[in-house]
Amino acid sequence: MNIKPIGNRILVEPLKIEEKTFSGIILPGTGETKSSNMGVVVALGNIEVEIKLGDKVFFRPHSGVEIPDSDKKFLILEMEEVLAVIG
Q: Dihedral through CA 72, CA 75, CA 76, CA 82, nearest 10?
């Protein structure tokens, strides 16, 4: 993937979550995992905050623009949609 966000945006690869019971048993289903509102930063636009490549971030649910690429999914997020950096 060769995408460089412009302006005050970042490119994030959302982390997947598996459906589990409280005791840790993975529930059978469609075999797919759901996206969470947490992801890893894979590209940066022209931002002036302390976010680096590889940082894990929390973002608002249902935010960003989805960019599909073969078997992966990416999101372009405005910095206002990022809630926190997981450190």
A: -140
